[in-house]
Amino acid sequence: xxxxxxxxxxxxxxxxxxxxxxxxxxxxxxxxxxxxxxxxxxxxxxxxxxxxxxxxxxxxxxxxxxxxxxxxxxxxxxxxxxxxxxxxxxxxxxxxxxxxxxxxxxxxxxxxxxxxxxxxxxxxxxxxxxxxxxxxxxxxxxxxxxxxxxxxxxxxxxxxxxxxxxxxxxxxxxxxxxx
Length: 179
Known about the structure:
By secondary structure, the protein is an alpha/beta fold. The protein has one domain (about 10-175): P-loop containing nucleotide triphosphate hydrolases (Rossmann fold). Helices cover about 45% and strands about 15% of the residues. The chain is built from seven helices and five strands, in the order E-H-E-H-H-E-H-E-H-H-E-H. It has a five-stranded parallel beta sheet, with helices on both faces.
């Protein structure tokens, strides 16, 4: 069931491995879209997870529930005129496809970055915990990450800075008549 959206609201899902640059792009994109007059909310998975699953186990069932709830929250916000940026790995394509089915004005941005580079950038220590055996569910390390097969836009963060990535995303939004 797709939700009706207000004229200028849309959703942009930024997906990629942890530490690939999603959050940096999301913050810069939020500022740019707000400067264009849109009301924007970033749904950052770690922040939302602290509320929905404060004792996160990252089990498959928990992830399935979490990403369905995240997509529904985004759809509700978009339906009320808020542009939503999903800053979330969403390891399975099905999670992002579920959101796409709920939100008619939807763009998926794939952030590409080699695992080795993500591990070097890992300021949260996610990969270190996985390597030490403190976590067994790190996407790209122990858990598979299903990259989009046909994203609306692909950003390689080893070749492109956040500001340039935002320019490409905004250009796509304008090209599609969503801004």
